[in-house]
Amino acid sequence: MLAPSSEIISSLGQAVRDAARQAGAIALPFYRSGAQTAARLWYKDKSSPVTEADIALDTFLKEHLSGLLPEAAWLSEETADNPERLDQRCVWIVDPIDGTRAFSTGHPDWSISIALVLEGRPVLGVIYAPIHDHLYEAVLGGGAWCNGRRLKVSEAERLDRARVAGPKPLMDRFARSAGAIQPLPKVPSLALRLARVADGSIDVGLVSSNAHDWDIAAADLILHEAGALLTDFGGQAPIYNRPQPRHNEMVAVASRLHPRAIGAMRT
What we know:
With 267 residues, the protein is α+β, with helices and mostly antiparallel strands. Helix content is 33%, strand content 27%.
């Protein structure tokens, strides 16, 4: 299969933005601010919530995005994995609702995450947070944007006093080496947490182990285009569309602070 050209990838941007916003419109009738969702809810793997909204968005996005680029494979949190994706150079990687627990309990920090991955790395990414009406997007080489505003990472030059968001055990570990940080509340949607590193409102985003491709692929590109890096604590960038789409602990931070940040996590 021939890989789509950079011109074709760039031309998809408007259609993917529209799809993310349409997906948000499908989800919103089920959302109840500060209260239990109106959607039917059940659990997979005993503890991971799923709602009928997740399934409705997944169905819509699979049909819509596959129509935009039929040669691309599909990987989503809510679709049974098809190993045939491993034979494809190009794959859509989607989380229809990233932060389902937040969505189902009325917390505003959930999002829709869409990435197009080519040979293991994202080339297009969109993250839409419907409650905030923030649409983050990037195409490889084209910068990162939110609602038409170009994104740039924080200008912080030091790790001490850095605004850090992530799981508390990782923040405590970071602080033991970095010094007195400013711990922020954990953002339930991992995609949105990383997007806020890209927009400069979070200096350091920490990611626990077992994040999946669909949690991070779109955010990875948005971070890169905003001047940040997302890597494991050994400094390795994630590779996507592997047989097991899971990742180790990671950190997202401005490129200039990256060596110090991963050094802090290894100490």
